[in-house]
Write the structure tokens for this entry.
Amino acid sequence: MKKHIILSVSIILMLFSVGKAVAHPPKNMGVSWNKEQKTLFVTAEHAVNDPSKHYILSMSILDGNNQLLVKQYTKQSSSKEFSDSVVLKDIAPNTKIRIQLLCNIMGSTETTYLIP
């Protein structure tokens, strides 16, 4: 009986560890700005097996503590990375913004960017 309990607990712990290993936050976020179009381009590494089940859930853009934009997603367009662009018409040059990406399973990443 004791061996069965130890075996069961071990299997549960292994399964939990495997689940955490395949779920991961986005990383290496890249940000660029197109001045003429007032468009922000965001990319991040987020390799997944199934982009309809494991994807970037939301992108938030903040100016200080003021939320400028939140965009939600239901899938990721690529199994290797996340990418999207947003128009920010009313943003002034030299504004320091924060971009946050949230994975639908686990983790998030954040970076700051100075609008040129």
Q: What stands out?
A: The chain is about 20% helix and 45% strand. The radius of gyration is 19 Å.
